[in-house]
Amino acid sequence: MSLLASTEADLALWPDSARLTADGDVRVGGVPLTSAAERYGTPLYVLDEDQVRARARAYRAAFPDAGVHYAAKAFLCRALVRWLDEEDIGLDVCSAGELELAVAAGFPADRVLLHGNAKSPRDLASALRLGVGRVVLDGVGEITRLAALVPPGERQRVLVRVVPGISAGHHDKVRTGDEDQKFGLSLTDGSAQHAVARVLATPRLELTGLHCHIGSQIAEVKPYLAAQRRLLGLRARIAETYGVVLPEIDLGGGHAVAQRPGERGIDLTDLARRLRAELAESCRAAGLPEPRLLLEPGRALVARAGVAVYRVLAVKRTAHRVFVAVDGGMGDNPRPALYGAPCVPRLVGRVSTAAPHRVDLVGRHCEAGDVLAPAVPLPADIRPGDLVATPVAGAYQLSMASAYNLHGRPPLIATREGTPRLLIRREEPDDLWLRDLGG
Ligand SMILES: Cc1ncc(COP(=O)(O)O)c(C=O)c1O
Ligand SMILES: N[C@@H](CCCC[NH3+])C(=O)O
Question: Cys staple from 352: which of 89, 116, 379, 394, with CB 3.0 to 4.6 Å?
């Protein structure tokens, strides 16, 4: 990133509501970050409710006939679940914990999909007890385990997760469409076809469709078209062999957002148009009715709505570097350490006329690798007590946060029309000690 790009520090990556004020503060959802940091302490996560709702509406507008299921692993809390329900978005969960929280918040279980490459007995029992809409089968062994739990006379709707042989995404660790990884059933070695045959022969399961998820942070449309083609090919063979026309295909999530200045996220309108055109063409050629499309975006619904706010605790100059250490780090945002993911900080709360300097923005955890952003420009006069905020913080930060070094996890507030609401309180040392029974 050039030094200039950061001094200009436009708010393109920030929520649409973000406004710079004359004194160097930034308002998000009408709430000044300095006053939020004063009131709730730092590190602090801020989620702009209107931004989440706007993204949900953008999906509904681009995919009016599809089922859009938010991938709860990106971030989950009860208020968010209610906003999504109001915006007619379904959910994708991957544990009993996520499912139970959503249902406790009033989310209708029949609009939830349950995922997991290794579903526990509790995951499956919870899914059946709460009446989850669909279980996405990820292995042949799961077929009998699930069927055995379905009460007599009832049927559980399921999808089969297929490995389409197409992978994409920002890092090897999140590419999931290739052969020889832990997710899904291979088309190439026949496992997917075998699972389909088994499900069709299992009276307590109803196969509604095929699923794939090729990876995360994908900005191009082409990999989705290729994956859709594979699923439609299998669907056509199933129709030929068994006379069963599956009513759904699920292309998973993975839609990219801009994480750096100048970057672009996926173009939803283009994605929708090209998927729909190809779906229509392929089904016409096969002489089959079109299936309903399901999608599972996580990041693309919430990432840009989130901002993380930190307080600078220390500035250290060494022979070749300047370290700016904040009161968070890999505990609340493990993405830079895990994937080298970008993080674009800006000074908030005062105007600095000092020239930008390259610094390493680091956390306060006991690891040399606790670097939030290496070699990023911040004003040369940055000092302890300053606030630094990082945008695009709404996905896979708090949901992947840990209490490493017994620093509790940060709170999260929602902002809307100038009003902050505390949605998740700070995790205090007491919360952590309570689990330690001392014996
Ligand atoms: C099965 C499945 N669906 C959806 C998602 C959501 O991905 P993203 O947040 O990149 O949209 C994931 C995570 O990558 C996933 O594993
Ligand atoms: N946690 C990953 C994406 C999620 C992968 C889940 N299948 C990231 O931050 O990029």
Answer: 379
Helix (H) or strand (E) holding 371: strand 371-379
Q: Which residues of 48-62 are buried (b: 16+ CB within 10 A; e: fewer)?
A: bbbbbbbbbeebeeb
Q: What is d(CA 135, CA 358) in angstroms, rounded to the nearest whole number?
A: 49
Q: Tell me the average pLDDT of the chain.
A: 96
User: Ligand nearest 212 Cα, by number?
Assistant: 1
Question: Are the beta carbons of 132 and 114 closer than 8 angstroms?
Answer: yes
CB-based contact 255:264 (threshold 8 Å) = no
Query: Whole-angstrom Cα distance, residue 262 to residue 259?
Result: 9
Q: Which helix (H) or strand (E) holds 268?
A: helix 268-286
Looking at this protein, which amino acid is placed at residue 265?
Answer: G
Which residues are within 8 A (CB) of 432 and not within 5 positions of it... i.e. 6 or more apart? 403, 406, 408
What domains appear along the chain, each with residue ranges and CATH number? 3-48+303-434 (2.40.37.10), 49-299 (3.20.20.10)
Predicted local distance difference test score (pLDDT) of residue 167: 85
CB of 216 shorter than 6 A to ligand 2: yes
Which ligand places an atom closest to the C-alpha of 59?
Answer: 1
Q: In this structure, what token pair is assigned to residue 430?
A: 């007491």
CB neighbourhood size of 44 (10 A): 28
- 133, 113 contact by CB (below 8 A): yes
Nearest CA to ligand 2 atom 8: 396
% of residues, the chain, pLDDT over 70: 98
Write down the pTM of the prediction.
Answer: 0.97
Closest residue by CA, ligand 2 atom 9: 396
What is the band of 3 on the pLDDT scale with cuts at 50, 70, 90? very low
Residue 295: beta bridge partners? 68
For the residues 418-425, what does the mean pLDDT come to? 98
- CA 207 to centroid of chain Cα atoms: 26
Mean pLDDT over residues 62-72, rounded? 98
Q: ipTM, 2 decimals?
A: 0.99
Q: Which atom of ligand 1 is nearest to the CA of 396?
A: 9
Phi/psi zone of residue 140: left (φ > 0), alpha (ψ -120 to 50 degrees), beta? alpha
* Confidence at 10, pLDDT banded by 50, 70, 90: confident
Residues 145-173: tens digit of each pLDDT: 999 999 999 999 999 999 999 989 999 99
Closest CA to 362 of 310, 436, 415: 310
pLDDT digits (tens, 9 = 90+) for 220-234: 999 999 999 999 999
In the chain, the amino acid numbered 24 is: G
Lookup result for tokens 């996905």: 395
Mean pLDDT of 18-24: 96
